[in-house]
Amino acid sequence: MIRDLCDGQLEGAEIGSTEIIFTPEKIKGGTHTADTKTAGSVCLLLQVSMPCVLFAASPSELHLKGGTNAEMAPQIDYTLMVFKPIVEKFGFKFDCDVKMRGYYPKGGGEVIVRMSPVKQLNPINLTDRGTVTKIYGRTFVAGVLPFKIAKDMAAAAVRCIRKEIRDLYVNIQPVQEPKEQAFGNGNGIIIVAETSTGCLFAGSSLGKRGTSADKVGIEAAEMLLGNLRHGGAVDEYLQDQLIIFMALASGVSRVKTGPITLHTQTAIHFAEQLTKARFTVKKSEDEDDSSKETYIIECQGIGMTNLHL
């Protein structure tokens, strides 16, 4: 996909290959289609293409095909409900239209993403978590799965959250995905907590054969509660997704996080190699955080400039 976005050369990109050689050229806007042909995640396609098309010569429209709600990747609902509002703080907007939802193993989902290039990215400061003000989400069933599963996932998640957070209404809507907007069968859940300072945290889970609806709901609820305990201003999954943008931004970005994930360490390693940006990770010095594993990731961004604009 990235080769096509920039008319580059790519050698060795086939199954069984142990080495690839990629030579990028000028990033161009316009309409591009990328199809995984499997349940491969459209959200991962979006993750890798977004920093590129921000520095294209003209606006882009990306038609991304594959899984929208797949394991080992963000669900499209996470991308829209959590990643999008936070990443837009870097000073750009994108529009994402979910045409068809696709699940493991068939895939068949499609999203259309539209975005315009920017001159530069602004740095971000996400260090003030605030207090949780809202908890909301959706559970879904698609295809032949009975609607009761969606209701059961929601009820189990609400019960689990209530044990720890009693004073907030938890609004989780069960949804039957319309036939014409979902390919194949699937079920899952996403729950988002919003804070007084606009921070967003999520917990999510997908149904698998042999896993009860209750278990799926509880897994998402426990993931959300875990992300609310560490005192950071982002959840463990947003952490690594912000690194490349921090590296490219103009100025110093600071993000407060819980324990640093291996994904984040890897993202920092490669962002530093590719961009000459400098990252530091320090234990948070706030007295509120002293008992917790809370860190500040700071980055001096390189101020990448779009020469086409």
UniProtKB/TrEMBL annotation:
Top-tier EC class: ligase
Domain named RNA 3'-terminal phosphate cyclase: residues: 2-281
InterPro entries attached to this UniProt entry: RNA3'-term_phos_cycl_insert (IPR013791), RNA3'_phos_cyclase_dom (IPR023797), RNA3'_phos_cyclase_dom_sf (IPR037136), RNA3'_term_phos_cyc (IPR000228), RNA3'_term_phos_cyc_type_1 (IPR017770), RNA3'_term_phos_cycl-like_CS (IPR020719), RNA3'P_cycl/enolpyr_Trfase_a/b (IPR013792), RPTC_insert (IPR036553)
Positions annotated to bind ATP: 47, 237-241
Lineage, broadest ranks: Eukaryota, Metazoa, Chordata, Craniata, Vertebrata
Keyword Ligase assigned: yes
Protein name as it appears in the record: RNA 3'-terminal phosphate cyclase
E.C. no: 6.5.1.4
Family of the protein in this entry: Belongs to the RNA 3'-terminal cyclase family. Type 1 subfamily.
Record domain RNA 3'-terminal phosphate cyclase insert: where: 127-228
